[in-house]
Amino acid sequence: MTLDPNTVADLLARQGLVSPENAELIRKEARQLPAHRRSARAYEQQAVAYELIQTLHLPNARDGGVIGEYEIARAIAADAGLEFVRIDSLSLDADLIESKISRPFAKRHRMLPLQMVEGRLRVACANPYDIEAIDSFRRIAGREPELVVASEPDILRALTEFYGLRHAVKRAERDLSAGIDLGNLEQLVRMKSESEIESSDQHIVNAVEFMLQHAYDTRASDIHLEPKRDVSLARFRIDGVLHDIQTMPKIVHAAVVSRIKTMSRLDIAEKRRPQDGRVKTTRGGREIELRVSTLPVAFGEKVVMRIFDPEVLMQDLSGLGFYPEELILFQEFISRPHGIILVTGPTGSGKTTTLYSALKAIANREINVTTIEDPIEMVIEDFNQTSVQSKVGIDFARALRHILRQDPDVIMVGEIRDGDTAQYAIQAALTGHLVFSTLHTNDAASSISRLVDLGVERFLISSTLIGTMAQRLVRRICPHCTGERYLSNEEAATLRLTVPAGKRIKVQEGRGCFECRSTGYLGRTGIFEILAVDDAIKALILEGADAPAIKREAAKNGMRTLRQSALRKLAEGLTTFEEVVRVTGL
Fold this sequence. Notes:
Radius of gyration: 28 Å
CATH superfamily of the largest domain: P-loop containing nucleotide triphosphate hydrolases
Oligomer: single chain
Number of strands: 18
CATH architecture of the largest domain: 3-Layer(aba) Sandwich
């Protein structure tokens, strides 16, 4: 049976997903399609049906939503008595797919092997009624398929993601092994359409572009290319955790690294020392920057590309994970006319995102916002941004000294690393500027001790410091597969929780689903420890109190520690026991 628009309209009506009137509307619109679309081949008719129905934005008669590709596929699955699935391209079994069917067959018949389950071959198909295609698959694969239904666009997307990078790598390996010139690698990077990429003969360029596209699609924050003894491994960091994506031959790895170094204007010939560079690309109409770092390791050059997406870095403060009372306090910090605000935490804890979001919240045409960064992580027109230039002797301290002559109102110093930078930052705050910066300390109170260690006088700290904030990022439980469980006695003890006899503590966890790629997590949120420097804290600073004493006083005045913030997220079902332990070190 061909799943053309008329057939799908009947099927949706039988399933109660569209009204008879809307089913007739689908048929009417199908009759008005251009002749070449009405007479398309049988396997193309389903694509026509999906496209037509989705453009109509028909209401779902069951739940009031809109009929989309997954509603259509679920209806087909229900009509055929089969399971509906969504395909995660990261979980596809490469060896299984390539051993069973060819790319042309998969694309023509919209079929994709997913996995072997207890000796049964699970195969996703878009049309379970295409007996001819199923028979052909049975002959080619040499076994009976266990069919499940996926949407036609989902299968095509998975085929593009899976075969795109893999195909480019294989073609590149073939040409490199044959000594064929792969073309001019000096061209600027440009994200191309699939058809443009397919027509290109520059397979290394293709491999890099497919990899970047795949990274953007999977919300990756970093791309790692790691040379091993015999192969190279590509990994993506998604929500703070690395996932294996693709292996490639060493000869292709070397060419891919050269391509990336060319894109970021690095020295291709230099392989003995680390190098840093940047690449600008576009995605969905917005500019995305990649920060590139190369490092010589035992088996070649390792490359890490950090992705700076403005939609991630430039969030509204309310989207960072603050509780209402925390947001009010932090907004009070940044509304001060002068003083210094410190954000602390390890690398990857979200400090830059917090600072950019804070600066964005206060930036306007009436003030001069200037930043000193190493390097500039995201170019933002609202700020005047400068970067540390170690080659010409411009460090944070020297840059800050010059910026003070530029009539700034607000200054962001990427990091206070030494005594000179600390002194200039304090002096800037004393002379009427609002200063933001970061430190690498474990908690908020320790930032005060760190300033003292850097040689800043205590009376200067007490008179300029508005507040300090320690932060971390915890993974959020996927809302699509959340479930409940009870903490064991050992887990409760790890969290230092007192549980009454006969009672148990219920928490949430992610079961794993398509949306979260079976991890149980989707996205991240912040946990915060905000220390306001009030009169009591100022007095302790002047008295020479240590960090624990300052932390105790702040806690008495209502400061929530990182541990308490994490436990609150756990209690509210936003994160898991495992994340609380991993991030806070309990």
